[in-house]
Design brief:
Blueprint (H helix, E strand, L loop, with lengths): L1 H26 L3 H4 L18 H12 L8 H6 L3 H13 L2
Helix pairs in contact: 1-5, 3-5
Length: about 100
């Protein structure tokens, strides 16, 4: 019976775990500038950890559309779909 309860608990948590892994995997490329957990080590690069999902999404769209000046982010942002941007933003927003 305990094994059945444990299995049910693990299955219920699976979608959240998969979503968190997807966010982490997509954000891995951001680590070189923004740090592995989104905490920048330089004043020239924004810390992403703990920022709101909406803010991160808006900034990524601004980069992609050329509305926010950048060195490389405008090119990087073009490589992500809207769904990927949402996933990355949710992952960084959850880092505290």
């Amino acid at each position: 019976m305990k094994a059945l309860v444990l299995a049910a608990t693990m299955l219920a948590a699976a979608p959240a775990f998969a979503e968190d892994n997807a966010g982490r995997n997509l954000a891995a490329g951001c680590a070189i500038c923004h740090g592995s957990e989104g905490r920048s080590v330089t004043k020239h690069v924004s810390t992403l950890a703990g920022q709101s999902k909406e803010h991160i999404v808006a900034q990524m769209h601004a980069f992609r559309e050329g509305k926010r000046p950048a060195t490389v982010m405008h090119q990087i942002a073009k490589g992500y779909t809207d769904a990927q941007i949402e996933t990355i933003a949710a992952w960084y927003a959850a880092r505290r």
